[in-house]
Amino acid sequence: MYQLSGSTVHLFLTPRSVITSFISRVCSQGLTFPWFVVSAMMEEDKTYQRWKNYLIIVNILFEICGAIVVFIGFYTLLRSSSTNGMLTAILFIVGAIIMVIAMLGYMGAHKENPELLKIYGWVVIVLLVLKMCGFIYFILNPIHYSLDSNFKKIYEYYDENPSITAKVDMIQRTHYCCGYDGPQSMVRLDGTYPSSCCTSSQTTCFLPYPDGCSSKILGTLSPILTVSRGFSYFGFVTHLFCVFGAFNMASSIKSKRSTGSKLPYNNF
User: Is this structure's pTM higher than 0.85?
Assistant: First the structure.
């Protein structure tokens, strides 16, 4: 109702007029109002589908990576001596854990099982916490310092342990180096050096390689450690998204099942 008083217009709205106006607008817009609801539902289904595809693809890739780690462990077992048994065991255990977690995530996403997805999500959370502890440890104790310290101890047993002597000789011949930090630590009483410190053309080693093996080995390992660190960060971020995806899918599945809605299956 409008009431004109001089030059001022007063508007009086009643609950009935508001409801009538709303219904008339909905009717005049036709399917415009329910289309927003349908559009929101379609967008929710797209998000669900993206998370499902992401979890399936990522966990297939992690399954392959786990299988590669197990293969490397098996190859190491066949080619190496018993002294590398600890490394072989670590490779087998790490590879198996990666494969089991990846299979759990793949089956949960593929079968659209909210219980499996929640278990997978919590397992990955534990894995992320362990990774964070590992990151903190290696920040406080850089790995190259540990490698350098262990490498120095090996040289202390040179000429005392035949197995260690053979390995040191192989390292020195391969990397053209002598001693831990230079040839001065390898000089013998007669002024000569081990044959592995010189080229094979010298029958008696008097002119050793000038570089120490520590800098050579760490220089070789530095790019490998950098790449490994990059893969670790990438895996951390990828698993973080896996946690979000797993719990998002589990919540959507339970919500749709409670309302009797059909789940948006894909072709995987």
Answer: no
